[in-house]
């Protein structure tokens, strides 16, 4: 008696029986099926293509090849025989595949929550800047300087101060035009303030500048140039101060945004409840299929069948 490999199966050969082969042996009319481990694995993989659920479980955009590899690994691990065992193995593959899909959904929920934090913040800042710009009473009383933490307001204030500086450099002090810019930034000027600002410095500089107009005794033109130069330095210092203040605030906001993003690494309560319930349902499906498969295989092998256990998962 000899053995011959035929398409993944082991066939028995006997000299002098059945049709003759080239080596003088004769093939017995019956084949015993795959007997070596390699033959069994090949045969088991051949059976996978007959999975009854594989055509409906794959959604558009999902990889059929990845699902087939998952099913093949479970098939190889459990070696199902017969339609009932094969169905249970495929149900286990489906539950596992859907759990993979669940993790992708969880990741999408988190990404949706964190990836737009910064853009949403910029939208809110823009809307805030629009509201502030439309409140003329606020501008008259306090100016934009109180809202300097808003990046758009900050940039507008810097542009306004740079315009003021450029105007003074090119044409000197022009009270009406300068007052318009300073009022936008600092609000309407008042003689008594708890805290002075650049507008107060401007009033002092302009008064001194006007006092030297036509004063030849004290070389008025030179004194006016000095007053103008000193005030231009004050504008530069004010710009530097505002930049330092904005940088400090931006650092605080960056930290606050980072913490907000970290908090959103867990889906919100409603999404989390939905995901956890679906996960529990998939785990029940997998456990039931595994339990039925183990019972079927024990029955096929003539082993004692354990009492059926109902596995329950609770979210409470």
Strand content: under 5%
What's the total helix number?
11
Number of E strands: 3
Domains, number: 3
Structural class: mainly alpha
Separation of the first and last Cα atoms: 65 Å
Helical content (DSSP H or I, runs of 4+): 55-70%
Which regions are unreliable across 5 or more consecutive residues at pLDDT < 50? 1-34, 43-47
What's the arrangement of strands in the largest beta sheet? 1-2-3
Largest sheet: 3 strands, antiparallel
Indicate the mean pLDDT.
Answer: 81
Assign an overall shape. rod-shaped
Q: List the secondary-structure elements in sequence, H or E.
A: EEEHHHHHHHHHHH
What's the alpha carbon Rg, rounded to whole Å? Answer: 41 Å
How does the SSE layout of this entry go?
Blueprint: E1 2-6, E2 9-15, E3 25-27, H1 37-48, H2 54-57, H3 64-78, H4 83-114, H5 117-134, H6 136-141, H7 151-171, H8 175-186, H9 198-211, H10 220-263, H11 269-300
Antiparallel strand pairs: 1-2, 2-3
Can you walk through the features of this model?
- With 316 residues, the protein is mainly alpha-helical.
- The protein folds into three domains: 1-35, no CATH class; 38-113 and 277-300, no CATH class; 117-263, no CATH class.
- Helix content is 66%, strand content 5%.
- A three-stranded antiparallel beta sheet has the order 1-2-3.
- The longest helix has 44 residues, at 220-263.
- It is rod-shaped.
- Mean pLDDT is 81; it is low at 1-34 and 43-47.
């Amino acid at each position: 008696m000899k053995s011959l490999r035929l398409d993944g199966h082991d066939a028995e050969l006997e000299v002098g029986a059945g049709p003759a082969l080239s080596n003088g042996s004769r093939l017995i009319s019956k084949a015993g099926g795959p007997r070596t481990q390699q033959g069994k694995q090949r045969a088991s993989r051949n059976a996978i293509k007959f999975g009854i659920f594989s055509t409906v479980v794959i959604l558009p955009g999902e990889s059929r090849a990845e699902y087939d590899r998952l099913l093949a690994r479970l098939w190889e691990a459990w070696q199902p025989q017969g339609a009932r065992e094969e169905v249970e193995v495929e149900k286990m593959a489906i539950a596992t595949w859907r759990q993979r899909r669940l993790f992708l959904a969880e990741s999408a929920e988190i990404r949706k929550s964190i990836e737009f934090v910064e853009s949403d913040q910029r939208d809110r800042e823009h809307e805030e800047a629009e509201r502030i710009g439309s409140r003329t009473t606020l501008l008259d009383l306090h100016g934009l300087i109180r809202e300097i933490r808003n990046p758009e307001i900050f940039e507008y204030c810097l542009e306004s101060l740079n315009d003021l500086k450029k105007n003074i450099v090119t044409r000197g002090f022009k009270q009406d035009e300068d007052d318009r810019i300073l009022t936008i930034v600092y609000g309407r000027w008042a003689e008594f303030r708890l805290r002075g600002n650049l507008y107060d410095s401007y009033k002092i500089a302009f008064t001194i500048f006007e006092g030297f107009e036509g004063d030849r005794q004290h070389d008025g033109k030179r004194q006016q140039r000095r007053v103008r130069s000193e005030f231009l330095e004050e504008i530069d210092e004010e710009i530097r101060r505002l930049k330092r203040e904005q940088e400090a605030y931006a650092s605080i906001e960056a930290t606050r945004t980072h913490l907000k993003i970290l908090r959103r690494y867990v889906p919100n309560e409603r999404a989390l409840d939905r995901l956890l319930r679906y996960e529990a349902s998939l785990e029940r499906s997998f456990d039931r299929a595994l339990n039925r498969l183990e019972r079927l295989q024990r029955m096929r092998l003539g082993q004692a069948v354990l009492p059926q256990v109902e596995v329950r998962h609770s979210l409470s």
